[in-house]
Amino acid sequence: MNELLQEINEPAASAQGVRLLLWRDDLANHDLPGNKARKLKYNLAAAQQQGHHTLLTFGGAYSNHIAAVATAGRLFGFHTIGLIRGDAPASGTDPALLNPTLAQATAEGMALHYLGRSAYRHRAELDFLAEQLARFGPAYVLPEGGTNALALPGCAELVAELRQLTDFDALAVAVGTGGTLAGLLTGLAGQQQAVGVAALKNGSFLSAEVDALTQQTVGQTFANYSLQTDYHFGGYAKYSVELLSFIELFRAQHGVLLDPVYTGKMLFAVLDLIKKGYFPRGSTVVAIHTGGLQAWAGWRQRFG
Questions:
Q1: Which residues of the chain fall short of a pLDDT of 70?
Q2: CB neighbour class for 289 (10 Å; exposed up to 12, middle 13-18, buried from 19)
């Protein structure tokens, strides 16, 4: 088996006759690991083709996307600007006093600017974007989370990679903005199933987001997926003893570190669904580790 595709031997899966595999996208690219690299791939190509030298994007103070765009800028020769949700820290941009995500982004060369939460709500509006470009100069704009039509083809490529390695009946992935799930659906093209696990509370709206993305990208929506919304553990990036205990146990048993915002919730959900008989006996399920491990440094700073 490919070194990125790992067998997960869990008693619950064996009892239900389900084969569980873990795709390690967190190991697929050393410099820029995880699904963010896939979502950025064709966006970076478009930015280069359009003659841009600067990437401008949005994110929270602990955002995986902000971290990935900063790294991509260094690797591919772009200036990067991050518009961060929230007030500027009293320390300004002193890397020694920033949180780990923003300190690393600064070290990668990203210029940080802060937007109050009321202003940040307008981040997708054309007039607001025009104001930012007038302020910062010409730039290729990447949306929060990196999710747009050009993000989907890079994620869809993972389906072809997996099909070359193994037969499977379902893919499972964490869902934040819906881009990765939508990309997988375009790659599946209506065949095997996909299971999305919402990482945020009240995530039912994400189905509409996924459908809009696939409609925009390939001209159709897909029915071969479900969105699981009961595994958010209190909301996006919320502290949960139960979740952290699961992550610790999973690492001890399988040698794989999950993150507390996305992949920990996704694997917890997959194993719970297996126990409940969600997947038919004889199924092969591939859970996708989308990376996001940089979040641990910020998590430890916030929660200990």
A1: 1, 90-97, 304
A2: buried
Range of the domain at 219: 5-31+149-303
Strand partners, 7: 21
Q: Are strands 170-175 and 140-142 parallel, antiparallel or unpaired?
A: unpaired
β-pairing verdict for 5-7 and 19-24: antiparallel
- Whether the CB-CB separation of 16 and 282 falls below 8 Å is answered with no
CATH code assigned at 126: 3.40.50.1100
* Strand pairing category for 193-198 and 284-289: unpaired
pTM above 0.90, yes or no: yes
Task: Show the beta-strand stretches assigned E in the chain.
Answer: 5-7, 19-24, 54-59, 79-85, 110-115, 140-142, 170-175, 193-198, 225-228, 284-289
Give me the pLDDT at residue 184, please.
Answer: 98
Same domain for 255 and 117: no
- The candidate with the shortest Cα–Cα distance to 199, out of 265, 245, 273, 290, is 265
SS3 19: strand
CA distance 100 to 145: 18
